[in-house]
Amino acid sequence: MKNLRNKNKVTILGAGFVGATTAFSLLHQSEIEELALIDINKKLVDSQVMDLQHALPVLGYTEVKAGTEKDFEDSGVVVFACGCNQKVGESRLALIEKNAGIVKEWVPKIFKRNPNAVLVMITNPVDVLTHIAVSLFPKKKNQIFGSGTILDSMRLKFLVGKYMDVDPQSVHAYIAGEHGDSELPLWSSATIGGQRLTTFKKFNKATFNHLFEQAKNAAYAIIEGKQATYYGIGAGAAHLVNAIAMNKKTVLPVSYHLDGEYGLKDVCLSMPAVIGENGIIEKLNLEISPEEKKLLYASAASLKKVYQSFKR
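Above: the chain's sequence. Below: its structure in token form.
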């Protein structure tokens, strides 16, 4: 098959809250040439496309259309945003039974049409579903990764910036591990303007761990109030897609398959990596504290248990 991959074309599978908000954010953030949305609900996808098209006169021109499986063939990036949403009081891991079957149905269709596509998983539980996708195509593990803790890290940066009274874009801090209850903050590598966060006079571990808990549990509060989260993840996912489409080589905490990094194997979880047009360019090797390593191992064990249980 001739490779017709167009790195500036993005296809989003799933036109619900997250898929459509990712599409809208992409129209703001990047210069992609073509954007296709696919959904089994034709009325929904047609309505979303029409609404997005009406924003184009003030956002700059991108071809936005309702797509089909054929659009996978020349897409530089395919975003997997379809599946059941998290309900009030429900953990992300509880969604696995509902969404794993959708992954097994659609991921082979994507790579059959386009072996060179970069696949970005957003659907929850994103770490386990990313692992399932990688298990189907292990040779493409650098082309398959999840949005992971991008949103969690954005939430943390916002809260730290507000507390420290600085622009959150000047805060460099990551949440790592599972995108969920076992995630952890990497305080040892967090900086503001190049200065380690832990050296600031305002740094207090108890206070900052409270900020982390707020970031970790934000989804539950938002879902209780309005049934779904989509603005934050839409912006974060678009930032990730833009890094691929524009080959920006951006460092982001994505959920990828670990093959010995940090002493962990055969698990998908989030740690910072360099992202470009072919997917994961480089997995960073951060120096993390013994406490953080212990929490990372616990997060990995939790995810492995769920994945192995599902496999049986």
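The chain has two domains: 6-146, 150-311.
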